[in-house]
Amino acid sequence: MRLEGKPVVEGRARGELLVTREPLTFFGGVDPLTGVVVEHGHELRGHRVSGRILVLPHSRGSTVGSYTLLRLAKRGLAPAGIVAQRGDEVLVVGCIIAEIPMMLVPSLRELCELGSGRLAELRVERDGAVLEVL
Fold it and tell me: Which residues are catalytic?
């Protein structure tokens, strides 16, 4: 499967997909010391974001979430890349300062149907972005 999208933060990433239909709170929702989702009631609770290509509709919560992404990156625990439906400020700023490749797609339907665990490669360049599920 190959999905093209809008580039947000340039870079390349390869890793397993971690897919959610729910927005994610990074500040208080992802443990910056372990990279594990700890948000109560979230479908990804207990899953590690580290080294994975995180697929989500958007983030939510405090702007401190951007710095949580940076803290994760400094510890080597950040997502390898992020694919989102909406580029909210927290997510975009977090990916910029943490240097996490990010692209936007108009719909997550196909990726949600695929689910987590498949190996994928994300390539984000100034003039285009592609996610290839291997």
Answer: 62
For the stretch 95-114, pLDDT in tens is 999 999 999 999 989 988 88
Query: CATH for 2-133?
Result: 3.50.30.10
Q: Smallest Cα–Cα separation from 99: which of 11, 5, 22?
A: 11
Domain spans of the chain, in order of start: 2-133
Concatenating the DSSP letter of every residue in 41-99 gives T-TTTT-B-TTSEEEES-EES-THHHHHHHHHHHTT-S-SEEEESS--HHHHHHHHHHT
- For 27-47, how does the pLDDT look when each residue is reduced to its tens digit (9 = 90+)? 999 999 999 999 999 999 999
- CA of 65: how far to CAs of 53, 70, 71, 115, in Å? 18, 9, 10, 24
